[in-house]
Amino acid sequence: MDDQRTPQTPHAPPSIRLADTALHSALLQLRGHLSIVHHIHGRVRLRLAASALGQSQALATVRALGTQLAMPAAIRQISVNAAARSVLIEYDPQRLPDSFWPQLLQAPADQALALLQQHLAP
């Protein structure tokens, strides 16, 4: 009897699958260009590096952060000042630990995605 099953294709492990949301994608794309400027409990200000200014995709992604993306429950508000290359994120500290932001920016890509999926589930 012939095996009529569809051939199995290898899938990426869950830790490196594509981002679940537009916010995940934006943060993953930008994280190499972002640094923490100021951080208090429930609020973090990120700065977009000047090196990203020549990349139109990075600028479009920053602008989208403040306007077009659905926010998970842990994120209260995102404000973008494109002229200052600044992103202010207000978050629920009961849902998102303060350590999340430095970990997100410093972790390898697969770990950063895992952090996003764990803490910023849609």
Automatic annotation (TrEMBL):
This is Heavy-metal-associated domain-containing protein. It comes from Plasticicumulans acidivorans.
